[in-house]
Prior knowledge:
The protein has about 170 residues and is an alpha+beta fold. The protein has a single domain, classed as NADH Oxidase (3-Layer(aba) Sandwich). The protein is about 35% helix and about 20% strand. It has 5 helices and 4 strands. The chain has helices spanning about 5-10, 25-35, 55-60, 90-110, 120-130, and strands at about 45-50, 75-80, 110-115, 140-145. It has a 4-stranded antiparallel beta sheet, with helices on both faces. It is globular, with a radius of gyration of 16 Å.
Amino acid sequence: MDTLDSILGRRSIRKYKDKPIDKEIIEKIIKLSMHAPSARNQQPWHFIIVNNKELLTQISSIHPYASMAKKAPLAIIICGDERSLISPTHWPQDCSAATQNLLLAAYNYDIGSVWCGLYPDKEKIKKFQTLLKIEPKVIPFSLVVLGYPDEKPLSQDRFNKDKIHINKW
Length: 169
């Protein structure tokens, strides 16, 4: 699939078919996610794959915008590991880049996804750390719910020339 087609065609998907995602495809998606740029190549990310239905239902109840998780085959939580950072303030950018790569990689395999934010919401972070037994210095950054799409939202032109500034505001 062409990179430009992926960027323009990928949409947030919140309805999924009742069809599991093959383990090898999940691994390929995460591998592509790990190829994101990272400040000083610190690669602070960790990925928690959640495919247990009970946990997915709990996720949908503790995150107000993740109700679709209970009907999805899986979710991936991207976490930033603060324990050994070279650039301690840059892990959120690194995890953002990894999350975007994950969304585009999933789209490449015809898998729908939606990004639900966790960081910097301290309450959500704590709830996910408790639910998934995550160490205190590992911060749940984003929740990506995945599944084969059971909807097809139309792509929109988001270009807005008014948001472009040259040399000054």
